[in-house]
Specification:
The chain has about 60 residues and is mostly helical. Helix content is about 85%, strand content about 0%.
């Protein structure tokens, strides 16, 4: 959004806009961290399984 549109907003609209954009940023960061954690767990399971020749948790649920 360009600055002219933000300046034209009412004070209440500016507050709501800032709350929405900060919530979006927080959600984006938390989803990114969750995905990183999930990926590292899958990688750890796969590495363990390749060493021990046991099925991974993902292989257990495969159809």
């Amino acid at each position: 959004m360009y600055k002219g549109a933000f300046r034209a907003m009412s004070p209440l609209t500016k507050v709501v806009w800032r709350k929405i954009t900060s919530a979006q940023a927080a959600l984006h960061v938390s989803l990114h961290l969750y995905n990183q954690l999930a990926f590292s767990r899958v990688s750890a399971d796969t590495a363990t399984a390749s060493r021990t020749q046991e099925p991974t948790r993902l292989d257990t649920y495969a159809i």
